[in-house]
Amino acid sequence: MDSTRIVITGVGLTSPLGNSLADLRSSLLQGRGNVTNIETRYMGTVHAGVCEYDARKYQSRRELRNSTRAGSISIYCAHEAINDSGINWATVDTDRVGVYIGITEHGNVETENEIYNISQFNYDVRYWSHHHNPRTVANNPAGEITLNMGIHGPHYTIGAACAAGNAGLIQGYLMLKFGEVDLAIAGGVSESIHTFGIFAAFKSQGALGYNADPNRASRPFDVGRNGIVVSEGGALYTLERLSDAKARGAKIYGEIVGYHINSDAVDAVLPDSQRQVECMQAAMKKAALQPRDIHIVNTHATSTPQGDIQECNAIKTLFPTDSCPDTRVNNTKSFLGHAMGAAGAIELAGNLPSFQDNFVHPTINVDELDPNCDTGNLVIAKPEARPRIDTILNNSFGMLGINSCLIVKRFKN
């Protein structure tokens, strides 16, 4: 039934590879990454994926002064998604709009900045900003969207570590299926590069990537990979019931057909490949698909030595080349680093145009493939043309053993 099928009708994003789906896709197909060096407090120079978007497009200077970076990214992406969907916002019943944003963490940037600011005044808390509480509550990015756009339906963020981009989309999907809303703005955002703490923590773990050329620092599956490149960004989607999308003649990017979230319950940092296998299997079961039906597996792989191997083991288990000849595997973080809570949402966006152009975008920066990461179907260096692409399986995994998988199909009536 069309009233129970959920489709993607709009995409709004900002990423180190650009501020539109067309820009993102162009960079991916041309093999053009964008990681640069920035200066961060107490750490000096670090690699980062930086977004450059027009924050004034949808916010005044005053609003930006009171806003957070994550909130500003969210507002930008939400407006762009609505605009892209062709929805006449003036006619929308905003009581029936829900906002569901996946985040890795929120509030660290603001708290670090306030502590630093009062340190210049002998830690006198009279200089602490009265905006701090609304800036740091966990629902801030989603709440800032509702304030900016006059949305009266439910809003909240989903804290799911680096699985959060998928988790935001899954929540929007479910709320539409349950009839709680008629339109969902859903996805993930991240402001991570603005907190020195995340860089310091990864460095202390030996997991902060480095290369003399920052654009070659994020190198999943390569034998020389040495850690994560932290990035910021966001990708939000308009999700609708198919019946509503058809009624207004909307363009449809794809249909969400499968999803799953599970937990390793093994380690706070190291992933468990068997639980990843089970997560993908459960998503495919909900989608009524077999492994051989999956055409693109977009990997979470972050460029850490053990994490990449674990995910590749899971992929080799589920998608052996002999029984899954049409399955191809790629990675987006090699282009822009790890956008944390936004990663899964941005990476899905980068693959969605495959339904139209029938190309699988490549993984870059693989000079020497780690034999332990050789899945046999990894697309490296150059995009691969395929006869037809009908299904995308999007993996996003996170700390404390949270795994998420989302499956999107080419739309068919």
Q: What is the total tally of β strands? A: 15
Beta-strand content: 15-25%
Strand order of the largest sheet: 5-4-6-8-1-9-15-14-10-11
CATH class of the largest domain: Alpha Beta
Classify the fold: give the CATH topology of the largest domain: Peroxisomal Thiolase, Chain A, domain 1
N to C succession of SSEs:
EHEEHHEHHHEHEHEEHEHEHEHHHEEEE
Computed structural class: alpha/beta
Radius of gyration: 20 Å
Assign the CATH architecture of the largest domain: 3-Layer(aba) Sandwich
**Largest sheet, strands/sense/barrel:** 10 strands, mixed
Please describe what this structure looks like.
The protein contains 14 helices and 15 strands. By secondary structure, the protein is of the alpha/beta class. The chain folds into two domains: 2-247, Peroxisomal Thiolase, Chain A, domain 1; 257-409, Thiolase/Chalcone synthase (Peroxisomal Thiolase, Chain A, domain 1, 3-Layer(aba) Sandwich). The strands form three sheets. It has a ten-stranded mixed sheet, with helices on both faces. Strands 2-3-7 form a three-stranded mixed sheet. A hairpin with a 3-residue loop joins strand 2 (36-40) and strand 3 (44-49). Helix 7 (164-177) crosses helix 13 (343-351) and helix 10 crosses helix 11 (305-318). The mean pLDDT is 97.
